[in-house]
Amino acid sequence: MRVLVTGAYGRCGTALIDHLDNDERYDLTYLNRSDRSDDDPYGGFDTHVADVADYEAMAPAFEGQDAVVHLAAYPGTGGSWREILESNIIGAYNALEAAREHEVESFVFASTNHVMGMYESEFAPELYEQTHDLLLDHTDPVRPDSFYGASKSFGEDLGRYYVENHDYPQQFYALRICTLNGPGYDHPYGDAEHAVEQDDVERGSAEYEAKVRRMKAMWQSRRDFAHQVACCLDDDTVDHGVYYGVSDNANRWFDIERARADIGYRPEDDGAAWDAPPE
Q1: Residues 42, 148, 162, 189: which is the catalytic one?
Q2: What's the CA gap between 108 and 69, in Å, rounded?
Q3: Which fold has domain 2-187+221-273?
Q4: Residue 71 near residue 95, CB atoms below 8 Å
Q5: 177 phi and psi, to 5 degrees?
Q6: What does pTM read for this prediction?
Q7: At residue 131, does pLDDT exceed 90?
Q8: Is the dihedral angle over the CA atoms 30, 35, 38, 41 positive or is it negative?
Q9: Catalytic-residue membership of 148
Q10: Where are the domains of the chain?
């Protein structure tokens, strides 16, 4: 299967490189706003360099692809309307339009937990404990917490529009990714340890422990994310599906039973299994 990954050198894209680039089932190619030098850990790949907001520049990368994993976007809740508009609204439209033009069958869309972010704003920090009883699934009303979250909700709806009104793409999978970190922080203590390294918090402080509690609920390991994307790529039954991207954490407040049933998602990791950062 020929698969294009947009936004290839971010945290999610590099997880796919780490876990799927050598998988014989897939022939991965990459699109990114900039290339990487040969001495970079992710350098040396054949990269189509383009901004997803520029249709003429990015669309040729879709030619001959069987699937696209669309990760390219402005990645944070602090983005201005202009930043979100260019990368997330126009970029999502361009990616779907390029998939339609080049008859790409399957489209995996990086959505976000921030589509539902106001639930966390309302119920945290109690939400981070195992005693909470909130479990959100795909039927619960969206409650974006930012332009970023709203843009991803738009992308989910735009994907439904395309599969129901055009011949291509034929399948659309939205993954509401929770917290996925880079290789050096791929564990439930990752956010807290990064904050320590930035001199923002002290290890063992109340703020440190709060970050750990949240991460133990929100963590999606890099291997679980790559596995979930592979589940989407291998599926041929779903027309439009929305799934939560999170490991099988005991404290999670996002449902993964639909992902288990529809696409065979079987996460290996659980934040509760960790009681300290790796040495």
Answers
A1: 148
A2: 5
A3: Rossmann fold (3.40.50)
A4: no
A5: -65, 135
A6: 0.97
A7: no
A8: negative
A9: yes
A10: 2-187+221-273
Distance between CA atoms of residues 245 and 115, nearest Å: 12
Tell me which of 236 and 129 has the higher pLDDT: 236
Amino acid at 170: Q
Residue 32 CA to residue 11 CA, distance in Å, equals: 13
254, HSE (Cβ side, Cα atoms, 13 Å): 32
CA distance 46 to 28: 10
Rounded to an integer, what distance in angstroms lies between the CA atom of residue 23 and that of residue 276? 32
Mean pLDDT of the chain: 97
Cα distance between residue 33 and residue 9, in whole Å = 9
Residues recorded for the chain: 279
